[in-house]
Backbone:
């Protein structure tokens, strides 16, 4: 059994992660920093799961082919 990466898209950027990764990991990898995570954690932005049509949080599980979008809060 080998390493089978998980592929998700964050704001149009393809990201490859390990199975068991969370939304937090995807945001950090997509932005190459923790700035997106800080925005979401502070309530300045939300993460929308475009695939499921629902908001998700930083601890949310990821699945292969998932599409996420970070949207600024109003």
Residues:
């Amino acid at each position: 059994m080998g390493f089978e990466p998980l592929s998700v898209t964050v704001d149009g950027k393809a990201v490859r992660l390990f199975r068991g990764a969370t939304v937090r990991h995807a945001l950090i990898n997509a932005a190459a920093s923790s700035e997106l995570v800080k925005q979401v954690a502070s309530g300045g932005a939300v993460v929308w799961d475009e695939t499921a049509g629902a908001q998700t949080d930083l601890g949310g599980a990821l699945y292969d082919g998932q599409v996420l979008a970070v949207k600024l809060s109003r």
